Amino acid sequence: MAAKRKKRSKRDLEKGYTPKQMAAKLRRFADSLETGKQFRIQIAGERVLVPTGALCNIEHERGDGEEEIEFQIKWSL
């Protein structure tokens, strides 16, 4: 019998990091991309597993006196 997967509630948050912390997270993610391994990260107390083959993109937004760059990683559940 297959194990039931726990349903997770919707979530949309931003978590700030110091430049050193962000560099370490990006470095670990880049390593996982290059080696073809899953990426594990904990964000605001929740562990997230990014599967291999996830879609990666960079988004740039500008408006109302500010600019934003988002590194996005998306996958289907």
Describe this structure in words.
The strands form two sheets. The protein has a two-stranded antiparallel sheet. The mean pLDDT is 91. The protein is of the alpha+beta class. It has one domain. The chain is built from one helix and four strands; from the N terminus they run αββββ.
In short:
It is built from one helix and four strands; from the N terminus they run αββββ. With 77 residues, it is α+β, with helices and mostly antiparallel strands. The strands form two sheets. It has a two-stranded antiparallel sheet with strand order 1-2.
Termini separation: 20 Å
Percentage beta strand = 35-45%
Q: What does the radius of gyration come to?
A: 15 Å
Mean pLDDT: 91
Spatial order of the strands forming the largest sheet? 1-2
Pattern of helices and strands: HEEEE
- Which bin fits the share of residues in helices? 10-25%
Overall 3D geometry? globular
Largest sheet: 2 strands, antiparallel
Number of E-type strands: 4
Please mark out the parts with pLDDT under 50 across 5 or more consecutive residues, or reply none. Answer: none
Counted by DSSP, the helix tally is: 1
Structure classification: alpha+beta
> How many structural units, i.e. domains?
1
Protein name: Amphi-Trp domain-containing protein
InterPro entries: Amphi-Trp_dom (IPR027598)
